[in-house]
Amino acid sequence: MYSPETGRAWAEVNMGNLRHNYNVLKQRLPKSCKVMPVLKANAYGHGALAVALELEAAGADAFCVATVREGVELRKGGVKSEILILGYTHPRDFGLLWKYGLSQTAIDARYAKILDSFGKKTHVHIGVDTGMHRLGERCENIENILEILRCENLVIDGIYTHLCAADSTENPYADYTEAQIEAFYEVIEKIRAEGFRCPRIHIQSSYGAINYPGLNCDYARIGIAIYGLLSTQEDTEELGNELKPVLSLKARVSAIKELKAGESTGYGMRFVATRDMKIAVLSIGYADGVPRSLSCGRGSVIISDRKVPIIGLICMDQMTVDVTEIPNVRQNDIAVIIGKTGNEEIKAGEIAKQADTITNEILSRLGGRLGRVFIRGDEPDERKKGTLQKRPSKAAVPCGTARVQTNN
Q1: Residue 59 pLDDT
Q2: Which of 175, 276, 325, 406 is the most exposed place for a label (fewest CB within 10 A)?
Q3: Nearest residue to 108 via CA among 162, 65, 147
């Protein structure tokens, strides 16, 4: 039987660190506010079903994903908690929302009326655009928002907005964030004034929970932070050791080759040896999520507890590294692309910086053909085999009345 650890490349997902991050983030928020983990893009490359079951067992009672298909896969896998679809669902797929008990974002009033005309009771959260200018009914269109609340077939479970500049506490970004928060709460007050029951509210994502933890909401939608990182290495380092990275990425050495001075390796002859050297071919490439921009010495990997540079162009399925200074490297050895071994470590944030992007992109683009190995603790031999334990969902807390709660 195939095992990821005997395959060509795989990700190791540390469930102990995942639970640690969940608990740390929960403690940062007011007691009435729960963590709603974000599981879109296969839980940022970590394996959505396994992550959902683990966090459900830890106490999470609501999750959010980007697409209805992601929600269906979680339901089929046994996830019992609420699952909110953050993005657009085509009307032809409204039946999946009803069949699998999924909650849909009402992305504007027009969409809500189409969803209402489906004719079956459908659970929704109303999206409110307070300045992101993406999805959501504009906050000044209060009558349109009230029209959504009046839809007979929509069960309004929640209402939320999304902060677009919460990653900065400096102006003008902080002022903009405060204006978004104020605009959202004004919508909530107008809803109450019209006699509607206040649905559960949520505002913060990862940076919102880090930089604006005192907001009194029912949920905080936590994505990248629950996986132990923020979007940049600098932001992650500012938190110190508060969060722990959950994912490591590894691959096998598939071949060892001698390269003579003047010879090249890989497409385009982009690397030409200036001396006799030894190279290792790794069984991982850009189709697995390794950015091609790390080619030609920009990135590195760890083999035998030593960092070695990537040489030549990264291919779809393979890449080469310089192992001239490692005497005992052999075929089938393990290379670490993300993670720590010995005294060396390569962080996802470092790779993101080298690739001129953010950690969210690095992790979420990890390919589907990578195996996923779920471990507990710091030792890679502590395996959790089989199906992860599940826990029944809990009832959601009612919407609070105060805007800010200081007793975190």
Answers
A1: 97
A2: 406
A3: 147
Report the C-alpha gap between 62 and 37 in whole angstroms.
7
Count of CB atoms within 10 A of residue 298's CB? 14
Q: Which residues partner with 85 through β-bridges?
A: 65, 104
The pTM of this model reads 0.90
b/e per residue 141-155 (b: at least 16 CB within 10 A): ebeebebbbebeebe
Catalytic residue among 76, 99, 267, 307: 267
d(CA 56, CA 74): 12
One-letter amino acid at 100 equals Y
Residue for token digits 């040489």? 311
Residue in the structure block whose two tokens are 């590294």:
321
Cα distance between residue 373 and residue 385, in whole Å: 9
d(CA 177, CA 131): 9
Residue closest to 60 by CA, chosen among 88, 26, 28, 85: 26
**CA 47 to chain centroid:** 10
List Cβ neighbours of 297 (8 Å cut-off, separation of 6 or more). Answer: 309, 310, 311
Position 4 confidence tier, pLDDT thresholds 50, 70, 90: low
Residue 286 a catalytic site member: no
Q: Among 22, 26, 34, 40, which one carries the catalytic annotation?
A: 40
Mean pLDDT, all residues of the chain: 91
pLDDT at position 19 is: 98
The verdict on whether 80 is a catalytic residue reads: no
Residue 107 in contact with residue 135, Cβ under 8 Å? yes
Rounded to an integer, what distance in angstroms lies between the CA atom of residue 79 and that of residue 52? 7
* Segments in 162-320 forming alpha helices (H): 173-193, 206-211, 233-238
Q: Which two tokens stand for residue 308?
A: 């070695």
Q: Are 84 and 105 in contact (CB under 8 A)?
A: yes
> CA–CA separation, 245 vs 14, rounded Å?
8
Residue % of the chain over a pLDDT of 70: 91
